[in-house]
Specification:
Helix content is 39%, strand content 20%. The chain is of the alpha/beta class and 221 residues long. The chain has a single domain (9-220), classed as 3-Layer(aba) Sandwich (Rossmann fold). Strands 1, 2, 3, 4, 5, 6 and 7 form a seven-stranded mixed beta sheet that branches. A hairpin with a 3-residue loop joins β2 (58-64) and β3 (68-75). It is globular, with a radius of gyration of 19 Å. The chain starts with a helix and ends with a strand. The structure holds guanosine-5'-triphosphate and magnesium ion. Keywords: GTP-binding, Magnesium, Metal-binding, Nucleotide-binding. One of its GO terms (cellular component) is Golgi apparatus.
């Protein structure tokens, strides 16, 4: 009887673990976001923004929610280290792509990189959240403006692709990408001040539960 009850208790209190990768250009604010998430959800606060240096490699952080554990992987965004991102694609349950909504000069570069993420085959079925960071700055583009900027960028890319026959996309790939863009969730956040961060974590939490990918393992808490 004891073992039966213990087994039932373990089953009922089992928490599933999900991995979320945080990617985007260098300086977008990924580490600041990760540390803010830790501060908001954990007893021990994360690093303060003045202690954060550019990431060479990865940082991780774990938060425990009522029914799940989310493990975040903040991956360095400098050009030379972006090629590590795909190594995390097979095992992640959601992707948060952070864009610096204040840095208009680098939006094009940000979209170029985002576009490669959006069409990476390993994560086509994985929830993808676009975070327009630095909303505390009066210079930042709003969520709507960010969405339009990406759509404009994408249209321009399609037009130049039509002219350049070397660049071609199969019909399936084009449809998959179209669907992904249509269903793309864009949220505004300020990693510095924490605005919108809980909403973003809630979205990720809900979407990983419904994701087609299996959780990593059960952990009894
Ligand atoms: N105003 C404002 N500044 C921010 C915000 N988030 C990050 N920053 C600043 O942007 C700069 C870069 O932040 P990081 O968190 O180091 O950026 P990162 O994306 O981790 O960069 P890499 O590690 O190089 O990939 C720092 O000066 C941050 O203080 C924000 O929400 N608002
Ligand atoms: Mg960083």
């Amino acid at each position: 009887m004891y073992h039966l009850l213990k087994g039932l208790h373990e089953h009922l209190t089992r928490k599933e673990e999900f991995s979320v990768i945080i990617i985007g250009l260098d300086g977008a604010g990924k580490t600041t976001l990760l540390e803010k998430i830790k501060t908001l959800y954990n007893d021990a606060p994360g690093l303060s923004p003045d202690k954060i240096a550019p990431t060479v490699g990865q940082n991780t952080g774990t938060i425990t929610l009522p029914s799940s554990i989310l493990q975040f992987w903040d991956l360095g965004g400098q050009r030379g280290i972006r090629n590590i991102w795909p190594k995390y694609y097979d095992d992640c349950h959601a992707v948060a792509y952070v864009i610096d909504a204040e840095d208009r000069e680098r939006l094009g570069e940000g979209w170029e990189v985002f576009d490669a993420v959006l069409s990476a085959p390993q994560i086509l079925g994985v929830p993808l959240l676009l975070l327009a960071n630095k909303q505390d700055s009066p210079l930042s583009l709003s969520v709507e403006e960010i969405r339009h900027d990406y759509e404009d960028w994408y249209q321009r890319k399609l037009e130049s692709a039509r002219r350049d026959t070397r660049y071609g996309q199969g019909e399936n790939e084009r449809m998959a990408r179209k669907e992904r863009i249509a269903s793309l969730e864009v949220m505004g956040v300020s990693a510095l001040e924490g605005t919108g961060v809980r909403e973003a974590v809630d979205w990720l939490f809900i979407r990983v539960q419904n994701s087609r990918r299996e959780p990593q393992k059960g952990v009894n808490m």
